Structures are given as C-alpha cells and as structure tokens.
Amino acid sequence: MAKRFLPLVAILLLILPLLAACGSGQSQSTGGGETITYWASNQGPSIAYDNHVLSQAVKDFKDQTGITVKFNVISWTDLFNRILTADFSGQNPDVLNIGNTWSATLQATRAFLPFDQANMDAIGGKSKFLATSLAASGAAGQVPTSVPLYGLSYALFYNKAMFREAGIKSPPKTWSEFIQDAKQLTNPKIGQWGVGIEGASITENAHWAFILSNQQGGSLFDQNNVPTFDSAQNVRAIQFFTDLISKYKVAGPQDAEYSTGTQAPGDFANRKAAMIIFQTGTISALESDGMKASDFGVAQVPVPDVLPPGGKAIESHVAGINISIFKDTQHLSAALKFVKFMTSRAEQVKLNKLYTSLPVVKDAYSDPAFNSPEMQTFETILAQHAAPMPLIPQEGQMETVMGGALKQLLAAAASGKPVNTSDIEAQLSDANQTMKADLGLD
Amino acid sequence: MSASKTMVQAETPERMATQPRKRPPRPQLSKRLAPYVFIAPAVIFEFIIHILPMLVGIAISLIGLTLFYIHYWTQAPFIGLQNYKVALNLSGAAGSALLHSFLITVAYTVLVVCGAWVLGMAAALLLNGNFRGRNWFRTLFLIPFAMPAYIVVITWSFMLQKDNGAVNALLGDLHITNPPFWLVGTNAFWSMVMTAIWRSWPLAFLFLLAGLQTIPSDMYEAASLDGASKWRQFLTITLPMLKPVNVVLLLVTFLWTFNDFNTPFVLFGAAPPPAADLLSLHIYVNSFINWNFGLGSAMSVLLLIFLFLVSLVYLGIFQAGGEAE
C-alpha cells in the first residue's frame, strides 16, 4: 500500500519546494526586532562601493531605532525591470530608490505610498526639502508617492590644463562662446575634440532635448500633455545639437556610438574631449578615471546669447534619485522611520559627500563639504536653473522615442551626411506620431 | 487451411455468446498508475513552463494591461480584440512600426538562415573526409555554438566599434579609408546579420556533418566511375540524401532566428536603430519600456500564429513532396 503512493510522494517532494518559494517576498519581524527590505540604486563607482557605504548607514539606523534593514544595491540597467516585476507580482521590498524622472510613471501604478500630510510629517515635513527637488516627486496636482533622496544636476565640466594651453581664460557662458572655445580645442589629427557627448544614449539625448528646447522657448508637451516634439523651437534646439558633429565639427563622430554614460567622461579624463556636460555624480567617475579634483572645473551650462521669445535659462532637468515606499508594506512605521533617517541632515551630508551628489534637504548645505565652488555651481543650477522633466506617466516612452530620434540624427551626422532642417523636422514628426500613438492620441 | 479458418470464424460469435468471457487479469492499481505518475512531472512542468504562459499571454492580449493596472492587474478592463486592431492597423503608427519590424525580421531571417546553411555545409563537406586533425577542427568549429549567446554578441559589439573595433582596424589595414559605423545607422542591420550567422552556423555544421556521414561512400564511388563531377555529385547525391536533415535544420534555424532577441538586444539595447528593429525586440519595447503588456501580448500572439502557419505550410510541402517521391 505504501509503495503504491511512493511516486506520488516523490512528485510532491519535487513540487513543494517550488510552492514554498512562491511565498511572500516581504520582510518579517524577527526575534531580534523588526526587519525591512530596501532596494538601493547604484550611486557610487561600483556596487561594492555602495554596499560599503550603505552597510554603515543601516548600522547607524539600527543603532538608533533597533530596526534591521536588509538592503540590495541594484544596477541602473536592472532597476526599472526589477521594479516592474515587483509591482506586478507583489514580491516587493518595503522601501526602494527610483530615478526621479520615473516618479509620475510609478505613481500611476498606484502601488506606492502617497506622502500625504500625515506621512510627510512622519518623515520630517515637506519644508525640509529643496523645493526644486520636491517638484520632481510625482505628477503635478497629485499627492507625491516619492520624496527626494539624492540631488543631481547637469553642469559644464572643463579641463583646466587644456583651457590654459589654448589660452582660454574662463569657461564659456553662452553657446557662441562655447562653440568658439570648442573649435579652438578641437584637433582631430590627435583625436582631440572640443566636447564629448553620449550620442547613442537615449536618456542623455532626451535630457539634452529637454534643456535645449526650454532654452529655445519650446517644450516637449503642451499644457494638455499632447506631444510637441516637432515644434519650430524643438527643431531649432535639435539642429544645434546635431550641428555639434555635422556643422561645427567640435564633437567627434565616434560620439554618436557612445551609450554607456562612461565613454564621454572617459574621453574627458584622457584629454580626448576638453568639455562635457554631465551630471553631478560624474565627479566620482572622473576621479576613478585618474583625474584629480583640481584638474577640472565645473561651470554653469551655457545658454543662448539672447534668449528667444519664451526661452528660459534652463540648464538642467531636476535630476536625482527619490525614495519610495510600497503601499502594501507590512512595516509602514519602520519604513517611514527609515525614509526619515535617510533624508535627515546628518545622513544627507554623509551619503551625498560619499556619492558626490547634492543634498535634497536645505539645512545640509551648511556643511563645508558642499561649499566648494564646484558643488555650489551644481547647487545654483539645481535650485535656480532646473525644471522637472515632463511629469507624465509615459515619461519612459518619451525618453525612448525622443532620445531614439536624436540617436538617429546624430548617427546620420556622424556618417558625414548633412543633417538639414527638413531632416530634423521629418525625424521629429515621426517621433511625435509615435508618442501620440503611445498616448492613445493617434 | 482456409476452410478450418472459416469454421473458426463462424464458431466465434456463438462461443462468445455461450461461454463466459475470460478477462485478462487486471493489473494492480499501482502498476496501472505508474506510467502516468512517471510522466506526470514532465507534463506538469511542460504545462507550467510552456502552456500556461502561452494561455496567460493570450488572455493578456485581450485586456488593457497598461502601467495604470500593472499592480492591480486583475482590474484591467477586457477590451476584446482592440489590441489586435491597433497592431494590425497599418495606417497607424503602431501598426506601421510593426509591419516595418516584421519586414526587417523576414530579411534578417532569410539572410541568417541562408548564410548559416552555406557556411555549415561548406565546413561539413570539408571535415567529412579523413585527414589528420579532423577532430580538432570539429571541436574548434563548435566553439561559437558552445559559447553563451551574451558573450558572443558582446564580443562582436566590441569588434564593431567604429574607432577601436577589430573590424574597422582590419579595414584600415586593407587601406580602406573612412571606415563606417557598424552599430548605428543602416549598417546596424548588417552587423546583426554577421553576428547571428557566426552564432548559428555551427549548428548547421553539426546537423549536416551528421547527415553526410550517413551517405554510403560507394554512391560517390559509383558516380565517380560514371564520370560525374564533384559538383554533380553534390547536386544529385549529397543534397537529395540530406533532405530529411535539411527539412528539420532549416525549420529549426528559421524559428530560432525569427525569434532572436539576444543579438539585437545585446548589440543595441532597448532602442535599436530602425534598421535593426527585430520583432522580438519590438515586442519587448512595447511591453517592458512602454508598459503596454496588452499590446505587446497581442503582437506576440500574432507572431506565434505566423510562425505556426509557416511551420505547418513548410512541413506540409515537404510531407507532400516525400509522399510523391
């Protein structure tokens, strides 16, 4: 009788571990106190570096509250898909980092805790945050489902030695000066270019499109969230961008192939590019590439000599990392305490110093670490010359479509084909149609 | 003999009617269940791994599963065939993009399957003879197939870099000035084809070499005595004898190539140049970048139907051809 059921027992033994593995991914209270899970984004030069930094942070948090934080540092290439999977399956952490441009997208999924008055008070109140950073924490007019954690902005990095050798005394303030300096610094024979860009990176391209469009008085969407990629202002903006390769020839054709986010900074560190326009966190990457802090300067992003009608002196989108809590966490109080801890003055100073990013709480700026001219430049750009990327649920699609269109145009420019206004109009018109279809407006 | 047989046949119904039927002894329950129990794990896992996701995919294609419902996916509205209408509306942006992707995929598949077959056949013919070091070459030729796809494609992506890549360095050594971009623009298509052929041809080589070894050598000797050239022998002996192998090989490589995701994704990421927008990546972008799983699933179902029909027609043609012969 027992033998009869032996095969069935064997099958059950095979399947049971699988079923057991399908249990909740959420953390449980342990004998030693409450435990929460945290997905951190990769902010430092490597995941190992982040593990080291965050180990100290969660230890300090445990000392203060008795709450254990199990954290996992996830690379940027994986983070979006990991969040998507967690969102769909319910196998989610309690707390996680998100790119702040994703805030409206993730808010639309209704999976995240709204930071209403009560929750905001629990983490120390809205007023402690930098207003521009807080503006990029969810769709306009809705209760945000994330709060800022690390602040970033674009700025112009320039190689001091190369500027000195070329007799250029100060970094350019306008695009005319920029082109003039870049031409002076360009020498294709020795593989040296005035500026380095990541032309195949859809994210970088989308950011460039946003910044230049604002400067030209344009926008990527109108007030009704209808895409306006092919407006005259945007065509002008993108024409200038592609002209860096095709007309002015101050960016190397090979830049049209760069997409990792490390290639242009690598060229900058190796004197192959005299200038790059990159985000705050690039400082640690440049230092990893062998540059000393004294080797490069940081200046504000150039603007047009005269702003066209409606043009704004926008030099960056409000870049940065936000922190969110999954709504169905079983440890809401502990999760809120952790967010409060991570956005406290003391932790903001420590973490942003180690990650070379900007604090998102006002009182952290009194720390001397953020008083260097470089950090003050970033702070000025973030506080006074930055605007949030379009806070629409389809922001990811927008970056893919607009960034992809620029990638095609830059590839054409790099191949030596003249990229004229009609080419740009046609490409942006196609992108606009695709975006409309993605929004269901086709 | 025939009379007695007739008698036996005539007696049988009566005997059946008058005598109690002798049943063979019924095996024990455990013995009867045993075969089912042994295949049960395979059936269960086949259902979980293949059938269930396919059914779920079909179900998702009928609902509006966008990012607004990703967390509460059970609340996604049923929209019938709307996703299919969007995908098949060739005057709309989504439909025309899908058609473009389909045509690119067809061209890619034809070139890769043909290229892999030609290279595989050449290598198999070369290594079918007896010579010193034959086994060493056989092992060497299988390396691209044995390596993980990711490693192969990422190696090609390094080799295809404009300034630092081995391909352009070689062109430079051949005094070809101004070498082209391979990973951006229209050349992206050819980069993808080259990479995929390099990955796929060892499989063709393996199949064809096995097939060649089943052809009796005396057929070639007889043909040779009759004065048939090598080319003639290839056309009239080798190819017809390899037909059963080729039927399977071409179908398998067609299906794998048409569904190829690794090559374009590792070479170009989630935003491939239009010239390299293969269907599988196109569907991935719709699902995982645009978070429109309903539309992505509808496109997947259309791809499934297309491949199923092509396979049926293909096998039907060869089955009919085989019966006619």
Characterization of the model:
The complex is a heterodimer of chains A (442) and B (325). In chain A, 45% of the residues lie in helices and 13% in strands. In chain A, helix 9 (202-215) crosses helix 16, helix 10 (232-246) crosses helix 16 (395-414) and helix 16 packs antiparallel against helix 17. Chain A has helices at 6-21, 47-65, 76-89, 103-108, 117-122, 131-135, 160-165, 175-185, 202-215, 232-246, 263-269, 282-288, 332-342, 345-355, 373-384, 395-414, 421-438, and strands spanning 35-41, 68-74, 95-99, 147-152, 154-159, 193-196, 273-279, 296-299, 316-317, 319-325, 386-387. By secondary structure, chain A is an alpha/beta fold. In chain A, the strands form 3 sheets. A 5-stranded mixed beta sheet of chain A has the order 2-1-3-10-4. Mean pLDDT of chain A is 90; it is low at 14-25. In chain A, helix 2 links the parallel strand 1 (35-41) and strand 2. Chain B is mainly alpha-helical. Chain B folds into 2 domains: 2-60; 83-324, MetI-like fold (Orthogonal Bundle). In chain B, 72% of the residues lie in helices and 0% in strands. Chain B has helices at residues 2-18, 29-60, 82-88, 93-127, 134-141, 143-146, 149-159, 166-173, 187-212, 217-225, 230-241, 243-258, 262-268, 279-289, 293-324. Chain B is flat. The model of chain B is unreliable at 1-11 (pLDDT under 50). Chain A binds chain B through residues 3-4, 7-8, 11, 14-15, 81, 84, 87-88, 90, 105, 108-111, 199-200, 202, 253-254, 256-257, 259, 393-394, 396-397, 400, 403-404, 407-408, 410-412, 414-416, 433-434, 436-438, 442, and chain B through 28-30, 33-34, 37-38, 40-41, 44, 67-68, 70-73, 92-94, 97, 161-163, 178, 180-181, 183-185, 269-271, 273-274, 285, 288-292.
